Amino acid sequence: MERVKKGDNVIVLTGRDKGKRGVVVRRVDKDHVVVEGVNRVKKHVKPNPMKGQTGGIVDKDMPINTSNIALFNPQTQKADRVGFKIIDGDRKVRVFKSNGEMVDA
Asked: Under CATH, which architecture does the 9-96 domain have?
């Protein structure tokens, strides 16, 4: 089970976007995720009349390493680490380390 999933509200811990909050759009691989509005770059795109695509400069969200982000805890309004707890003997859930509340509640 991953510590960070698609749709999670996260906050950036390090880098040029430190302090920004966003939602995880997708997982690229085991260690990288794309966060909405974070690690944004400008990409120069050539026009393609076959696809009806206009040329120009577009903003694109690039992947960020999962070690540079942390889940946002809405109760404490801060970044928080994630742990795992087994409930009902077979179900594994994610919990915040600071207060023990379930992430997926």
From this structure: Roll (2.30)
Nearest in space to 16 (alpha carbons), one of 59, 84, 62:
62
Percentages helix, strand, coil for the chain (3-state, rounded to 5) are 5, 50, 50
For 55, the token pair is 């040329």
d(CA 50, CA 94): 46
Report the predicted TM-score, pTM, of the whole model to 2 decimal places. 0.83
Tokens for 82?
Answer: 């994630």
Contact yes or no for 46/58 (Cβ under 8 A): no
- Looking up tokens 């997926």 gives 104
Query: Nearest CA to 1 among 21, 27, 34, 25?
Result: 27
* Residue 14's pLDDT band (cuts 50, 70, 90): very high
Q: Could you state, in order of their start, the residue ranges of all structural domains in the chain?
A: 9-96
